[in-house]
Amino acid sequence: MFLAYLIRLNFDFLLLSSDVDSVKVYGYVLVVNATLLLTLKSYSGVVRYTTLEDAKRILLLTLLSSFCFLLIDGLVPHESPKYLFPISVVAIYFFCANFSLLAYRVIIKTIYENLFTLRRKTIKATIFNASFEGMLAKRMFSSNERSAIKIVSFLDDNPKLINKKIEGVPVYSCSKSSIARLKKEGVEMLIIAEPFMTKDKLNFLVDTCLEFDIKIQQVPPSDKWTNNELDDTQLKDINIEQLLDREVINIKNESVAREVKGKKILVTGAAGSIGAEIARQLVTYNPAVIILCDNAETPLHELLLTFKATDSVKSFIGDIKDRVRMEQIFEIYEPDIIYHAAAYKHVPLMEEHPSAAIVNNVMGTQILAELAVAYGVDKFVMVSTDKAVNPTNVMGASKRIAEIYTQSYHKHLRAASSGINNLVNTTKFVTTRFGNVLGSNGSVIPRFQKQLEKGGPITVTHPEITRYFMTIPEACQLVLEAGAMGKGGEIFVFDMGKPVKIVDLAYKMIRLSGKVPEVDIKVVFSGLRPGEKLYEELLNNSENTLPTYHDKILIAKVREYDFAWVQSEVAELIRLGKKHIAMDTVAKMKEIVPEFISNNSSFEKLDK
To answer: Cβ of 91: how many Cβ atoms within 10 Å?
Structure first.
């Protein structure tokens, strides 16, 4: 207030002493400001953490105090020409008080940040996304005294922001030349703060950053920050799953909701990756009950713990090869729909133990199929594999035989029911085929991750081997959609995008972990495993397809078989399998599936 009067009187101290009633003026100033300070507690903020909220409180304080001074000047009697608080003085006071209080905080905060920066080794980083999420992340890193990250720039696609500055930090275009420029300026890290990024953009950023040896990390969405704060520990590596070059197939699940709601549903192989995700997705559609069937006790128990107490989920320990035990499920629960995901799936193991593949994958499917018909199940949805197409291994061939059995069984049932004027509602058998799922038990990506954690080497079977990939949730959406869409007898396949070269996958995973391929982590080629082939197929060469409502989901038209012949051949195959006569079992498989040509296997002699 003294400074405001001094400026108003042009720094004339004599005039100041004669015209200003100092005792009253400074007395009122002290009382008003002390009262407001205690009320608003604007003094309680930590100066080095000053934010816009602190500035708002200071503005409110000075605004209220100025209003009080004008009020006092109008209500309290005083001697003319001595004014207690002239309007011009109050206006000057308002600006001087705001400036001094804010400038003090800014100066202290700047000194503190600079001193702290000098004491720590910083990593220069740029943030992709100069909008809300990116700005929030930048402020968090700047205000966190434990953070070693210093944000020096933004990258963004918005032309309105490019070449501008936000909080003193420049915004560059998201281009290769911009990233090259940042590298020259000493940027060591790119932080992605965009929660909804396209795969094309993400792949571009990752590939470009890896080219210029810039580490790339991502922050979780702001609503998932720990205690609403962000620090260096919350930065995550880019997952290889995020980079696979294919569009996710979005399936309209309204039909699934109509199909599943209020139904009793059996999921076999429920403790596995696919079975567990099917169960999790089914719960959202409010079925009457979901029966989780598996013979693996511990994984099934762990799965049960993930459901809420209100979910209608029941567990059932049982082996699909045990007809008596399986029949108990049908007697107790009388399921309306079956999702059959139980299977032996590891190619090298099944090549070594073909009889186990037949007894589990073929006989287990036959037992469930026959019980489904006997107990009036409406839909039987079988989870198959792309390895069933032109199989080169026992596992793929066993799944193809299971497909043949259920398809021919459906055709047989339909023919029998049509002969009695459709009085019988027969079970509809539907099959889904898809490739490798990301993150499933024993799949390639988790295996590479474990090898990376141990320091390598990463083992790839062959430099030219390729595979199709999809996410577990997407695979399970397809299974559910097939169950709703299928009328019986179909094999659903879909466009899985481009096949991925496994060696390229390994190299990218190494570089994403911050290591250099063949320097820090070696890639070793171990040779094709028994039964393994270089590439997978989704359709047999002799097959064609029919369209569905979705341009990427197709129905495979496959060769039809006579059920009587299939039943006879499968019975003989199971008889051989139960005796565990490996060579005779595989020979019979090749009779049933003539396109089954073994590869890199002891069973190749049977093809000559």
So the answer is: 14
Tally the C-alpha atoms within 13 A of residue 206's C-alpha that lie toward its C-beta: 26
Calculate the alpha carbon distances from 198 to 128, 194, 195, 439, 539 in Å.
13, 10, 10, 21, 29
Residues 111 and 125 occupy one common structural domain: no
**184 within a domain of the structure (yes/no):** yes
Q: Tokens representing 494?
A: 């879909």
- pLDDT by residue (tens digit) across 443-465? 777 788 888 888 878 898 888 88
Q: Is the dihedral of CA 85, 86, 92, 98 positive or negative?
A: positive
First to last CA, the chain: 105
Q: Is the dihedral of CA 506, 511, 514, 520 positive or negative?
A: positive
Closest CA to 221 of 198, 242, 192: 192
Strand pairing category for 337-340 and 379-383? parallel
How many angstroms separate the Cα of 159 from the Cα of each of 130, 156, 171, 452? 11, 8, 10, 40
- Extract the tokens encoding 398: 């066993």
CA–CA distance, 585 with 587 (Å, rounded to integer): 5
Residues 129 and 45 reside in one and the same domain: no
Q: Let me know whether 59 and 185 are in one domain.
A: no
Q: Are residues 147 and 231 in the same domain?
A: yes
Residue 292's DSSP bridge partners are 267, 315
The domain that holds 189 is classified in CATH as 3.40.50.720
Nearest to 360 by CA among 377, 334, 342: 342
**pLDDT band of 408, cuts 50, 70, 90:** very high
Contact 431, 384 (CB under 8 A): yes
User: From start to end of 106-198, where are the E strands?
Assistant: 123-128, 149-156, 165-166, 169-173, 189-192
pLDDT for 541? 45
Q: Residues 387-397: pLDDT tens digits?
A: 888 899 999 99
CA distance 526 to 518: 15
Distance between CA atoms of 148 and 138, rounded to whole angstroms?
Answer: 13
> Going by C-beta distance under 8 Å and a sequence separation of 6 or more, which residues neighbour residue 58?
42, 98, 101, 102
- 292 occurs within a structural domain: yes
pTM: 0.70
Tokens of 295: 């013979």
State how far the Cα of 348 lies from the Cα of 378, in Å rounded to an integer: 35
Mark which of 81, 115, 149 sits at the end of a domain. 115
Residue 215's domain comprises 121-238
Number of structural domains the chain divides into: 3
User: Which tokens belong to 43?
Assistant: 């003094």
The larger pLDDT score, comparing residue 562 to residue 1, is at 562
Instruction: Establish if 526 belongs to a structural domain.
Output: no
The contacts of residue 136 (CB under 8 Å, 6+ apart) are 193, 222, 230
Both 395 and 490 in one domain: the answer is yes
Same domain, 131 and 84: no
Residues 109 and 128 in one domain: no
Same domain, 129 and 106: no
Q: How far apart are the C-alpha atoms of 409 and 301, rounded to whole Å?
A: 34
> Is residue 199 in a domain?
yes
- Residue 336 is predicted with a pLDDT of 93
User: Shortest CA distance to 251 belongs to which of 481, 413, 437?
Assistant: 481
